[in-house]
Design goal:
216 residues; alpha+beta; 7 helices; flat
Length: 216
Amino acid sequence: MLIPLRPGELSRLIPAVATGPQFNACTGNPEKVLQRVLISVIGAVITLLISQTLLFSSQFGSAFLVVGVVFALYLLWGPILEAGQKNATLRRYPAAAIFEGEIGDMYTTDVVEERREQANKQGRLELVENRRAWLTLELEDEEGYLGKVRFPFNNKKHKVLRKGMLVRVLVLSERNDFSRVGALTDAWLPQLKLWVGEYPFLLKPAFEELCLRRLR
């Protein structure tokens, strides 16, 4: 069942500016954090040194000083910018609707989350892969298959999931008739009061409230 959103509702469900959960999701793993720290430190040091050199001899000194401060804060605004870009990819869709259906099928797959070279006991470099189990939910209703929602599997939280459970998700499309699905957001399972998904696109309280009003 698809219930199209009214004008203005999409912008209230997917904000333009990053929320706290979205910021945390875009902070990334330790490797990504280290990469941001290096960019921030190196960029800030270089630009600040240039600004000190040019501060009294050129009008560009103050500009380099500002750039240096921006680099120094990259660890903070980097995740905010990334989250804003993710949100924008869904906010651009002209059509959005609430989908209420069920879990048609579910299965786990191993996903390579990191690859790195590491020396073995013989001193030779070998490729090491860090794998993690991801759970995929196939969503469907009486009209058939809709799409998939996938996310890292947490046995403690997700072992209770079963086929046939009620699921609600936001569907985005380029077409008003939703004949082609462009994207799905994170999903809400009201029976378990559980949210699942790869990235927290939706403002959860707002979506839950909207579902209560529109799905009576």
